[in-house]
Amino acid sequence: MELAGSNLAEVARHELGGSLVGRRLVVAAGSGHNGGGGLVAARHCQNRGASVQVILSRPVNRLAPATRAQVGTLVEMGVPCCVVGYDLSPVDLDELLRSADLIVDAVLGYGVTGDPRGDVAGFLDRLQAAGRPILSLDLPSGMDPDSGHPWNPAIRATATMTVALPKRGLLTEVGRRQAGRLYLADIGLPRALYGRLGLDVDAVFAAGRIVVLEVP
Q: What is the set of domains in the chain, with CATH numbers?
């Protein structure tokens, strides 16, 4: 989670032209570990001079323990955190999203198995409707990780930073349209692990811990 989030902050800096100083970021975070990675990115972006607003998809007591701990750190730092559907009216949410230089999408990870529902579905709709650049963590929220099929709703990202190895869905034609520019980030998994899974993986990160993926 820490490695994914710190790498995501670096990709955010790159997507915003090389500096986070004075830039406005909204981090949309889900209840699981994908959301936790987004919250780590929020901390690093704030430390690098950005003005960060966190919007949680679920109340704090419904977050995974590690994700909840990241919220506590952000609160201690003075980073404003709120819960969609509880702390913001639809009008306030739309205004906040439209004011962002970049929206970080860390709502849903690779565990998605069908159409998002309820408040999460409405949240994704509003993130997309804001018309601002979106950087997704691991894969765009609402996208099937194996086929690239976008469930309804699903984020269509400006850029996506996936971790360890790209999910198969990101390499499909439909997945490429959903993901936008594609980055791959190192989270420290040993090559021996891939070997045990029958995967022949070379030194992907020999040139650095974040690489740009060029997919035909």
A: 2-212 (3.40.50.10260)
